[in-house]
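Q: What residues go here?
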């Protein structure tokens, strides 16, 4: 089980981590808009975390003779998701080291700019600026930043783990392939 969790979790983490390393320079250069980056990021998370399904199926088929309980499948899925999330958060930390400027401040500035374009009231802008400044101050703490980054991907992993556990607990759902006879 440990090998499956590590292999599938590391691959999923490498996919989302690589996407961060590729897209953040595009965000910094202005080629990629933050709104599009969020869609791209969450789409990448779903694609990468689809490996949860394949990891649970592999464990069920290759180690449990094609039968797995919901709880056991959920455990494997959540552990794969956790490994992927740690890789994702570490990749974000590495990405931040390569970025120019203060990401949290830049993010806040873009949000305030958006509010101004939407003709938000001065009170709303002032309140948002205060919240963004507080967020930027908290975000400088690497422990808080790591936790925030983990909360971006873990809900996606939890949902995919629940769905995978629900469908793969049924023996007749994508049963293991029959071994082909070997010709002598």
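A:
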């Amino acid at each position: 089980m440990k090998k499956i969790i590590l292999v599938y979790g590391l691959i999923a983490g490498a996919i989302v981590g690589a996407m961060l390393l590729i897209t953040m320079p595009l965000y910094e250069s202005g080629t990629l808009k933050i709104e599009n980056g969020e869609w791209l990021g969450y789409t990448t998370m779903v694609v990468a975390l689809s490996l949860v399904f394949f990891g649970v199926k592999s464990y069920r088929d290759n180690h449990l003779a094609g039968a797995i309980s919901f709880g056991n499948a959920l455990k494997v899925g959540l552990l794969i998701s956790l490994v992927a999330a740690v890789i994702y958060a570490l990749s974000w930390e590495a990405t931040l080291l390569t970025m120019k400027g203060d990401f949290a401040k830049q993010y806040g500035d873009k949000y305030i700019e958006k509010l101004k374009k939407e003709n938000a009231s001065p009170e709303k802008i002032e309140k948002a600026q205060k919240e963004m400044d507080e967020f930027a101050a908290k975000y400088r703490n690497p422990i808080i930043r790591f936790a925030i980054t983990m909360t971006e991907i873990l809900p996606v992993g939890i949902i995919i783990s629940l769905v995978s556990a629900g469908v793969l607990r049924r023996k007749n759902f994508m049963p293991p392939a029959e071994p082909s006879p070997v010709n002598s």
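A: Context that may help when evaluating the design: The mean pLDDT is 89. The CA atoms of residues 7 and 71 lie 21 Å apart.
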